[in-house]
Amino acid sequence: MLQRCEVTPTRPLAQAEGRGENKVHVWYLIILDVYDRVAPHSPGYSRQRHTRSRALLVPGPLQPAIAGRDGDRQQVILQAGVSPIRQPPATEKRVLGTVEWLTASRFSLLRDFALCHWKSHVPFVLKALGECCPLLASLKLSHCSGVQAESLSLLAKRCPRLESLDLQHSQVDSSAVLSFLGVAGSRLKRLWLTYSSRMNAILTTLAAGSCPGLRLLEVNRDIKQSSQRFQLPVEQLQAASPELQVLRLLNVIWSPKPSPRAAPATLGFPQLEELCLATTVLSFVTDGVLRQLLWASARLRMLDLRGCFRVTPKGLQELPCPDLEQLHLGLYCSPSALPLPTTGSPLLTWKWQHSLQELDLAGQSFSERDLEQALAAFARGPAPLRALNLTGTKVTLSTVSALILSCPGLSYLNLSSCRHLPRGTKRAYRGPAAIRQCLQGLLTHSDEPEPAQDAGR
Hints:
Protein name: F-box/LRR-repeat protein 6
CATH architecture of the domain at 341-448: Alpha-Beta Horseshoe
Helix content: 25-40%
Largest sheet: 15 strands, mixed
Radius of gyration: 27 Å
Number of strands: 19
InterPro entries: Leu-rich_rpt_Cys-con_subtyp, LRR_dom_sf
């Protein structure tokens, strides 16, 4: 029975086969992933679900392609669509008829729905979902236009289990989001948004307690979008959403909003497991901001601070997060004139060497000796480190060799642009075999005799 559906546009067949740009053909790309339910005591049983995939490219309505029903079909992922080129009225009527037939005949148990790159008729699709999909739990509108407040709030009323909303990269007015939160905010658990000039109204509503059970909040920004700074009411959001587990503010310029003097003390984010503040633009995240966000987050497992050049190793060491598994501190787009620390990396590795699985230090200015002391922390015992990015650092040959010998589980190592390493070794290594090849190359270079010094020296 169909439980998840993703609808995306495909290019016309005439363009795909190179037969001209003027002819418009309406074709549907259907990808069916069928998960078979196998009895626990039957031959060939395993804990993993067996998968059969089938891809169809058929003209006209979708009915013939998915009319059949399989008794063992547990989940079907369907992708279908039409050309984004403007269609004649008869073709648009045919498409809408197909959508109406699907929702009425095949989507009664639908739980996850994604609509991508639809520039019109979005309210029609949302209305059809509201009438025929009472079990809908997740809605994603990606790169869509014409999303109206009335259709979005009506869908929330007719789908009482809807708890996940993704509106990233779609043209949605803030009033539509606010109307949705007014209806479904009390049960909403996951929310994805793209930054706009009217984001403050949405953040104010969230901080006022409209989504007390929110567990994931992500706000991103398109790279081509103009940068505009906004204030995040951190303490109010902590009080309003104490169950938040994932907070992502991606490529946005923000700073904490000052709290009123009479504001009560907050409990922080005690359930937070992932904090991502990665950015390619100016960052105002400091040690104090990080402490304000994470002072009660003992369960934090993933911390992404790429581009946050104001954060120091000392500030990270003081965080009350004892079992961090992923730490990303890479600097990829920061100006070279920034004053970056040359010492302090051992404070990070010796604090989390027992739990750290992924570490990104790309572009950092730590000295050779500092990196040697930092990476020596993984030689204390069986290190869980699986991925390490040292792009553009001053790491030396002996330090990398000792690290590989100390971390048998290492499966990704990036040594690109490491100026102190010999030629032929400055690249990314993926997989255990490539890591062993890297070690062999480093040991070969270490055995080579040093060039003779000039006699006059």
